[in-house]
């Protein structure tokens, strides 16, 4: 029978898992698990949303760094994959991703050399710039290698992260790019996730409008070196507002609008679940919405006192910017279709490899070894704890083992 590597984590080999194995019987836990049905739904949902709004999708790969998921995103119609660092770009390229959008500044000669190798190997690569010093460094480095580097100017916000703080600064930087023969100004980039205020939705709309006005100003000034410049923004919380702004300006007629959400692929049970509820409130025409696909399964380790269960799960296994959510419970070796009650169960504390769960007073059927499924907030911070994740079907049968490349 075909085998897939099981749940290696942190350099510890946890053995192999038979494909077709039952998750509640014979699989070493804890294990990070992706459910096939919601995964397939999310892939199709976001691709359809993007296309309906006249945009392209370049999912942020840093969320999962899972080549098998990159492949499925591209097969679903994604234009490319977004990454955050040169090593991430190299990893994605080595697994077949040819169009790489590095939504970050490229700094440091070692990283520049890595990108130069990717370009030489045929990568369609883009990065962002927001300062004259970096533009000159890049121009000099790639000129020495007789290569041309495609760059996008980043538009930021005061008090935010990276990016030019004004349209005037953008125009000045465009002049600096034009003075570097090795650089090609290919578009404008932004990130609305750093926009805040008393009315964040209104602030994001204003920022999206600034992106539109800035890209049109650059076009009017003849700054772009490509026939169809890219305009790109959008994380996983406000993608609807960015898409609407790009569509309302009819940017798809002269530009390549690109959305970059990453967490949508498996969604979550915390931060992005709340963000998705806001999207659905703003857009009641959208149907069904995204669904959580990522969970971590672990076992009851100890019942040291009434009202307390200690689960063999910790910060090394699951994201913890919010406490994990108890979802379901199974009896080890039992029928995966028979779920035990977790009503009133609440995570109260997370340590490196232990989770404290408060139990209501009427719980009398819990046993050491019971298997508990947990949901997490912010999937990026769960994926990066695992070298392998298990893909399972609705009957909790293991369909595949998905390797990560962090």
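^ structure tokens above, recovered residues below v
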């Amino acid at each position: 029978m075909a085998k897939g590597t099981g749940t290696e984590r942190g350099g510890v080999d946890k053995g192999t898992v038979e494909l077709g194995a039952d998750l509640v019987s014979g699989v070493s836990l804890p294990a990070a698990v992706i459910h096939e049905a919601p995964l397939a739904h999310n892939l199709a949902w976001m691709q359809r949303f993007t296309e309906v709004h006249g945009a392209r999708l370049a999912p942020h790969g840093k969320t999962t760094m899972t080549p098998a998921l990159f492949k499925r995103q591209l097969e679903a119609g994604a234009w490319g994959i977004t990454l955050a660092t040169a090593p991430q770009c190299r990893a994605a390229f080595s697994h077949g991703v040819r169009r790489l959008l590095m939504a970050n500044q490229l700094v440091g000669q070692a990283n520049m050399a890595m990108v130069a190798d990717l370009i030489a190997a045929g990568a369609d690569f883009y990065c962002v710039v927001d300062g004259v010093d970096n533009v000159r460094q890049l121009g000099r480095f790639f000129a020495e290698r007789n290569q041309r580097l495609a760059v996008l100017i980043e538009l930021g916000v005061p008090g935010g992260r990276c990016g030019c703080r004004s349209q005037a600064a953008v125009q000045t930087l465009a002049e600096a790019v034009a003075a570097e023969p090795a650089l090609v100004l290919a578009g404008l980039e932004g990130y609305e996730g750093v926009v805040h205020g008393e009315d964040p939705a209104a602030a994001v709309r204003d920022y999206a409008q600034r992106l539109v006005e800035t890209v049109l100003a650059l076009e009017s000034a003849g700054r772009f070196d490509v026939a169809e410049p890219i305009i790109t923004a959008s994380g996983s919380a406000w993608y609807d507002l960015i898409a609407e702004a790009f569509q309302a300006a009819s940017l798809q007629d002269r530009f390549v609008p690109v959305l970059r959400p990453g967490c949508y692929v498996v969604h979550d049970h915390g931060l992005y679940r709340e963000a998705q509820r806001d999207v659905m409130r703003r857009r009641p025409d959208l149907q069904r919405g995204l669904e959580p696909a990522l969970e971590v399964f672990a076992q009851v380790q100890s019942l040291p006192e009434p009202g307390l269960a200690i689960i063999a799960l910790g910060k090394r296994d699951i994201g913890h910017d919010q406490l994990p959510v108890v979802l379901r419970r199974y009896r080890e070796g039992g029928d995966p279709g028979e779920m035990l009650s977790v009503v009133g169960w609440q995570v109260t504390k997370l340590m490196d490899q232990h989770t404290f769960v408060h139990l209501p007073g009427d719980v009398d059927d819990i046993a050491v070894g019971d298997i508990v499924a947990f949901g997490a907030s912010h999937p990026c911070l769960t994926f990066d704890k695992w070298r392998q994740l298990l893909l399972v079907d609705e009957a909790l049968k293991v369909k595949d083992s998905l390797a990560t490349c962090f």
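The first strand starts at residue 3 and ends at 5.
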